[in-house]
Design brief:
This protein is α+β, with helices and mostly antiparallel strands and 236 residues long. 27% of the residues lie in helices and 28% in strands. InterPro entries: Sortase, Sortase_dom-sf, SrtB.
Length: 236
């Protein structure tokens, strides 16, 4: 019996070590990518000066690159890709390396940043990477200190402000609506998302704003959702 328990323990320990090393590999990939693309991460990131644009550099690594997202004061600082086919970036990094950390992605049939609602998915990793820090928005105090989301798209940094934080059932798809037939339909969507927020936020976006929805797992049958609206762009 002791030999059986010892064998089971050793197998479990080996699996745990392999998993931890796998997470480390992904974290190293993204850390090296960040250092190669950006000069710093203070209040805002700035591209390194080189002969290619930031987008060209990132698209050379992965043609599926769409934009870069950063939430100052959190671990969220990653490229976002458009999925090649269903589920691909759930198990592949930005470098297309097979890894359970995956990548931040939008669905393969989703529209890009525009007048609708861009939905970005990412894992809630136990090592604190990817979208793990979204769960901190369960605290209203955390929201007050981290209400801005920065998006780098087509050579400009855009600032978005969070207007809704939700914990929803995994079968509730209302927050994932991406397109709107009219301005009134989009206005109703925003009002509905505000009502579903677990606490009141200071932002009420007008229907002309571009909306962004960040989604990750919360437990086995729920989703943590953070929604923001683009309010301006920086001069960087």
């Amino acid at each position: 019996m002791f030999t059986l328990w010892l064998t089971m323990f050793l197998v479990f320990a080996m699996k745990l070590i392999l998993r931890v090393n796998t997470y480390k590999d992904a974290r190293k990939e993204y850390t090296n990518l960040e250092k190669s693309i950006w000069n710093n991460q203070s209040n805002m990131l700035s591209p390194k000066v080189n002969t290619k644009t930031t987008e060209e550099s990132l698209k050379e690594i992965n043609p599926d690159y769409l934009l870069w997202i950063s939430i100052p004061g959190t671990s969220v600082n990653y490229p976002v890709v458009k999925s090649r086919y269903p589920g691909y970036y759930l198990s592949h990094t930005f470098f297309c390396t097979e890894n359970p950390s995956g990548s931040l992605f939008i669905q393969e049939d989703a529209t890009q940043l525009g007048d609708g609602n861009l939905v970005i998915f990412g894992h809630n990793m136990k090592d604190g990477t990817m979208f793990a820090d979204l769960k901190q928005y369960k605290s209203q105090e955390f929201y007050k200190d981290h209400r801005n989301v920065h998006i780098y798209n087509k050579g400009r940094w855009y600032q978005a402000e969070i207007y809704s934080v939700q914990i929803t059932d995994e079968n509730d798809l209302n927050s994932y609506e991406t397109g709107f037939g009219s301005q009134k339909e989009k206005e109703n969507f925003i009002l509905n998302m505000k009502e579903k927020s677990i606490y009141s936020t200071s932002c009420m976006p007008p229907p002309i704003d571009t909306l962004i929805t960040l989604s990750t797992c919360h437990g086995s049958a729920e989703r943590m959702i953070v929604q923001a609206a683009l309010i301006c762009y920086t001069e960087n």
